[in-house]
Amino acid sequence: MVLVALLGLVGISADPVLSALAVRFAGVAPTLGVAVSVAAYDLGTAAGSGLAGRTLGSGLGAAGPAAVGTVLAVLPWSPPSPSPAGGRRTA
Predict the structure, then answer these.
(1) CA 62 to CA 55: how far, in whole Å?
(2) What is the CA radius of gyration of the chain?
(3) What is the model's pLDDT at position 87?
(4) CA-CA distance, 33 to 25, in Å (whole number)?
(5) Which of 47, 41, 31 is nearest to 11 (CA)?
(6) Between the CA of residue 87 and those of 80, 83, 84, 90, what are the distances in Å?
(7) What ranges do the domains of the chain cover?
(8) How far are the Cα atoms of 12, 43, 51, 57 from residue 54, in angstroms, in the given order?
(9) How far apart are alpha carbons 16 and 34 in whole angstroms?
(10) In which band, very low, low, confident or very high, does the pLDDT at 9 lie, cut at 50, 70 and 90?
(11) Looking at the record's lineage, which domain of life comes first (predicted)?
């Protein structure tokens, strides 16, 4: 329970900072910038919840949502895959 509260405090604290950055870089349309930022949060919440809900009916059972959360938490820290061209661009 303590970890859930800690995750909520750390995760939620990023939202105002990211929204402020969206407003700063939106130029002449700050309302649109923050609206897109909030829509992205909502889309991520809906997608993650839907994916975690689907795992409840799988063989993982009640451990499914925790497994999805773990994968989604580790995913941003994974290194990107190399490009097929070896990262070289041709002119």
Answers:
(1) 8
(2) 18
(3) 56
(4) 8
(5) 41
(6) 12, 6, 7, 10
(7) 13-73
(8) 24, 17, 5, 6
(9) 10
(10) confident
(11) Bacteria
The one-letter code for the residue type at 1 is: M
- Is pTM beyond 0.70? Reply is no
Phi, psi dihedral angles at 81 (to 5 degrees):
-75, 150
Please tell me the number of Cα atoms within 13 Å of 66 on its side-chain side. 6
Looking at this protein, which amino acid is placed at residue 31?
T
Q: Which two tokens stand for residue 29?
A: 């349309």
Are the C-beta atoms of 65 and 54 separated by less than 8 Å? no
In this predicted structure, the answer to whether residue 83 has a pLDDT above a threshold of 70 is: no
Backbone φ and ψ for 26, nearest 5 degrees, come out as: -75, -15
Quickly list DSSP for 20-84: HHHHHHTTT-HHHHHHHHHHHHHHHHHHHHHHHHHHHTSTTGGGHHHHHHHHHHHGGGSPPPPPT
The residue assigned the tokens 């799988």 is: 58
